[in-house]
Amino acid sequence: MLFRMGISNLARLESLGRTDSLSLLPNRRALHHDTQAVLDSGEEVAVALIDLDGFKLVNDLYGHQVGDSVIRQVASILREVCDGNASTYRLGGDEFALTMAGTLSGTILEGICRGVLERLVHPIAIEDRRIGIGASIGLARTSKTHQYDSSELLRQADVAMYVSKRGGKMRCSWFREEFDRNLEALRDMDDELRSALLNEEFRVLYQPLVDAKSRRVVSVEALLRWVRPDGKLIGPDVFIPIAEESGLINSIGLWVLRVACGDALAWGNIKLSVNISAAQLRNPEFPIQLGNIIEETGFPAERLELEITETCLVLDPVVAERSLDIIRGFGVSVALDDFGTGYASIGFLRQFRFQKLKLDRSLVVDSAGDESSRAMMLSSISMARALKMDVTAEGVETQAQADLVRSAGCDQIQGWLYFRPMPPEEIEQHLLLPASPFECERDTYGKKIA
């Protein structure tokens, strides 16, 4: 009897060691054990790695108790969609996995994953809340000609999931060998970025903004460029996303702020605008670091303006609002950049209390020939006026566009019609003179830090 009780307890302990206590699904250890057993038998196996989108935001907004309820609800959804045709696991955090074995396992599992995404389009009900949650899914499989162990199969699914997340989320991606090559290229560029920062390969250029009425320079925007040792210019649209993912954006962003504040210190009373990425604003230490830079450089805080996009705020509004309150306390103003490309509501604008709205170039360009775009631009300006915000039109390239945004009521105009981005030594000669249009070709100098 004692022997039988000992065996029973051991089996119970083994079962507990293979079960996730929150979702009651099998855990990562069980996934590796079960998958390897099927692989050893010679059967083909397909694995799907599911990573929830927006789960951190749920924890931040509603607390971990609600987050735990979301995990349990998602586990229930996965069981229901799988309906016994695939095995379901929780790997920890907001990661889940599905597995299937057999010749058609890949095709069937992909269909199940698409069913999961369709279910997650609808909000999850937790008490009196309706919480939206999405997912990015990566799939990998073996075949008769390609056999892997469970760790490699899960790694491939993880790489494919990463591709889904970068591709816009709420999608499935099958692993392909080129993903590994692309990942290696990203790692190489990450190493190059670190060297670029150490070797001072970055350059800060400045694009003046003019007053819509007087056409005098009233502000400059700092724009980051990377000039490699071979002379090749790498656009920020290429290297900034990599810097954000690697965490290097914090160091690069602080470098830009320090250099720009130092350069602009002697430029009279004009404002200096610097773009801040979502990753920087999510860093709770950023306001302290900003304050240190202002103190070190002696730059007047009231002359500094930070430009942020909706993405910075939507991804983590709790941290963003807290950081912006501290930043405004320094006397620094905040502008919402690229307005017209997202879904900012009046409530959203009121919540974050921007001092300026920057109309995206696409809205300015489209307004010249499209009545609905022009109406949207006019309503945006009226809304900004009601909220006591200034308005800047970006990307103005023709006199017709300048006349349009000026008559619409924009306060400032920025674009190639007046000035291209230029090195700091060229800025001073333009500060005391009326802006005058000149012809220039558009190139990568027109792109922003983020």
UniProtKB/TrEMBL annotation:
CDD domains: EAL (cd01948), GGDEF (cd01949). Residues 186-435 form the EAL domain. Residues 43-177 form the GGDEF domain. SUPFAM superfamilies: EAL domain-like (SSF141868), Nucleotide cyclase (SSF55073). It comes from the Bacteria. This is EAL domain-containing protein. It comes from Allopontixanthobacter confluentis.
